Structures are given as C-alpha cells and as structure tokens.
Amino acid sequence: MSEQRKDLPGEAELADMSRDDLVKLGTNLDGVELVHYADRWPVKGTRAERRAERGVAAWFVLSGLAGLAFVAVYLFWPWRYKGPFTDGELLYSLYTPMLGLTLGVCILALGIGVLAHAKRFFNEEIAVQQRHDGPSEAVDQKTIGALLGDAAATSGLGRRSVIKRSLGFAGGMFAVGAGLFTLGGLVRDPWAKSDDKDSLWHTGWKPESGEKIYLRRDTGDPHEVVLVRPEDLDAGGFETVFPFRESERHDPEKLVKALRRSDNPVMLIRLRSNQHVVKRKGQEDFNYGDYYAYSKICTHLGCPTSLYEQQTGRLLCPCHQSQFDVFTYGKPMFGPATRALPQLPITVDEDGYFVARGDFIEPIGPGFWERKS
Ligand code: FES
C-alpha cells in the first residue's frame, strides 16, 4: 500500500477542484513539464477549421462507404465457381480480391481518419515526464481521469457533429463488416435444398435423372474426356478420378467444374487379389472385385490424401500425417483424423467402364455437424 503524501490535497479539496486545476495538479505531481500547450484553433469556427473538419470527416465517410461496399460484395458478388474461359470467370476471380480491397480500405481510412483527427484537433502539447515506480495513488487515479476527460473535451468531438457522425458511420460499418465476415459463414442452413447436388449433403457424384456417372481421368486438359476401365490399373496401383456424365460432354464449363469441385476427387485403388480386406458394415458391396474407391478428402481438415503405400495399404495425408488403412475400409490408423474415408460405391457397366452406383452415403471431408461416423 502506498502512503498518503502530506502535501497532497484531501478528498474534499479534490472534489472542489475544476478539471483544469486537476489537469495542472496531475501534470505537476507526475513531474510533467508542459513545454508547450496550445489550442490548435483558438478562434473557433474559422474556414480553415471547417476545412480541416471536412477533411477528417471525408476519411470516415470513405471508411464507411468501403465497409458498405464490403457488405455488398460479401452478399451479392457472384462467388460461385466459374471455369477458365467461361462467362463470368473474371467476376468470379475478383470475388476474394474485392473482399480484401473493400475491407482493407475500410480499416485504412478509419485509421487515417483517427490519426488526422488527433493531429488536427487535439491541443498541441509537448511534455516531459519523469518515470517513477510503484502503484498509483488515489490522487493520481483522480487526476488521470481528469486528463482523459480533458483530452476528450479538447478533441472537439462533442461539438463537431460532422466528424462525430461520420466516425459513427465508419465505425458502425466496420463493425457490421467484421461481424458479417466472422459469422456469415455460420448462418447457412445445411438443410436448405438438401436434395440438391450442390448442397452440403451431396457431391458431384450424386445421380440425377438416372444418368450414368462414369469415373473420369484428369489428363491435364479439362476438356478431354478419358474414362477408366479396370484394365487401366495394375494390381497395387491407384488413380484419382472425377465424375463424368454424357450430357456434359459438350459443356466446357461443366467439364471443368467436375474436375475442380473440391468434394469430387476420388481415389480408385486396385488391391492385390490375395489381399485380405475388412469391409465396413453396410458397405460390403461398395467395391468392384479388387477395386475400391475412397474420397480423397482427408477427414481431418480436408487436405488431399494422395500418398499411397501399396505394401501396407496405407494412405497418407501430407498435411498432418494422418494415415488411413485401405485394407480396413479406409479406417484412420495414425494422426489426427478420427473418421474413416467415405467409400464410393462403384461397378462396371456393360461397356466395361467404371461407373458410380450412387453418391457417398455420408458427408465427405472434415468435421461435419450431422456426421455420425
Ligand atoms: S488434413 Fe489430413 S491430416 Fe490434417
């Protein structure tokens, strides 16, 4: 506990002192020497002061408008994937840069506005203060409160309604933008359109109108269609495949989308015929002979599990080293993943091509609020 100094005013005296008196007392007690202290605008309401005021307000208005633009971009900008050389690709590719640009300008203009306000309207002050150790005394606490009050009063915010309102606009839009950005992704209703193949419940493997879904190889040319047959894979081999529908053959946008959609990649693996395999209950007929198809999306955080070690049947995710056992229905054996890789039911059609017999029967990828496995 610090001792009350004898030379300090008592509580009754402090209560009687004006704010100016307390400011002076505070600076003196702290060993602060005010070398220079002057009002920047001794004559109020001059044209120069109003010009300075408009300059500061302009930054806040700019910040608010940028925040508003951020909200508009977030809500209305076309964000759905558009493939290369398709209509709307440019707008789609600008979605993320526009989010960054508008939010960046909002924060930057708000910061510049605050700095400009302090520079133009706070009293000019040059002070020298000695450092001291120990806890603050009651008088110090009182006087610092007065100092802060004085700073607020001399800042002129109270009587500069243009700046006050524009600052409120900028701060409000920033808060709305930040809140929207943080919470916007959480308000999507997972049940909305849950039958739609683009919903969170389905992947591009979802059958539609009874059309066959082939397993397609990615050759590097998004418009080339190469289907996969059993003889294309050696025993112990594996290949990443994507869905293909005959109705999409002449639709470049859909052909590209099928390769790019993040939940589409599937690993088609051919085990050796003498390999003992443990199948998951309810999925006993998902394989076609020695061929098994698993989602490539890691059930930990969604990286591609692309490293396959055929001797041990281990699939490795390079991100955090989760390992999945292909001999035991893609069960996680090591690392942070806790769920088995979803298996795609496959077969071979009358022409000898691999086809999917349906969509995955569970959501693919990392933690999903409705997933039970
Ligand atoms: S994303 Fe695969 S282990 Fe983390």
From TrEMBL:
Where are the bilayer-spanning segments? Answer: 56-77, 97-116, 167-187
Which PROSITE patterns is this protein grouped with? RIESKE
GO MF, one term, reads: monooxygenase activity
**Highest taxon of source:** Bacteria
Bilayer topology: Multi-pass membrane protein
Q: Name one GO cellular component term.
A: plasma membrane
Q: Which residues form the Rieske domain?
A: 263-355
Name the InterPro entries on file.
QcrA_N, Rieske_2Fe-2S, Rieske_2Fe-2S_sf, Rieske_Fe-S_prot, Rieske_Fe-S_prot_C
Subcellular location as annotated? Cell membrane
Cofactor(s) this protein requires: [2Fe-2S] cluster
Keywords per UniProt: 2Fe-2S, Cell membrane, Disulfide bond, Electron transport, Iron, Iron-sulfur, Membrane, Metal-binding, Oxidoreductase, Respiratory chain, Transmembrane, Transmembrane helix, Transport
Q: What does this protein do?
A: Iron-sulfur subunit of the cytochrome bc1 complex, an essential component of the respiratory electron transport chain required for ATP synthesis. The bc1 complex catalyzes the oxidation of menaquinol and the reduction of cytochrome c in the respiratory chain. The bc1 complex operates through a Q-cycle mechanism that couples electron transfer to generation of the proton gradient that drives ATP synthesis.
Q: Which family does it belong to?
A: Belongs to the Rieske iron-sulfur protein family.
Q: What is this protein called?
A: Cytochrome bc1 complex Rieske iron-sulfur subunit
